[in-house]
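We both want to read discrete structure tokens more fluently, so let's practise on a single case. Once you have written the record down, we can walk along the chain together.
***
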Amino acid sequence: MRRSPTRPCNSQAGFSMVELAVSLCVLLILTAIAIPTLMRSFRTYQLNDAAARLSAMLKFTRFEAVRRNTQVSFRMQTSGTGWIIGVDSNGNGTIDPAEKQEVLTGFETLLPMGAPPSPTPIITALGVAGLTTMSGNPGSVTFDARGAIRVANVVSSNVDVFYVGSASDPEFGYRAVILLPSGSTQIWTVPAGGIWQQIS
């Protein structure tokens, strides 16, 4: 009768303390390398999302004006440390709870002129004399029944800009939502220390 081989009591499978310490060190190093990249990607996503939501709200307001065959206003109003942007469907000069709206708060916010870099590349590309900064203060933009911008019941010749970014951390760049007199929109981006480029 054969005897089955027996293992010594001290030959159990597993990690030694040295192997475990080395594995943890490698994991910590990889995590330290990855976190700044992930944070940069997350902040870029936040800025792109805020600019896209602002552009979508302008497009929706324009669509409502054309659909209803009347003037409809897009409004910006402060809400704590953030902003509420939305459609003033009933024309009462404010965004009511039942009206379509978005909140921009936290890292991304609406910025006044002078916070982002000079918009000269945008002005040159559009071939206009300048841009009218709409962000940074409460205000409104009115679309007529054809979807064009109206100021004091006259079709506007101004090109409006809404700046989106962080008021305290310029490291992640800025976005600019351009509103043309026809009512169409463009989105531009600029990295920290870079030059404005159109992305949509």
Notes: DSSP finds two helices and twelve strands in the chain. Residues 17-198 form a domain with the minor pseudopilin epsh fold fold (CATH 3.55.40.10).
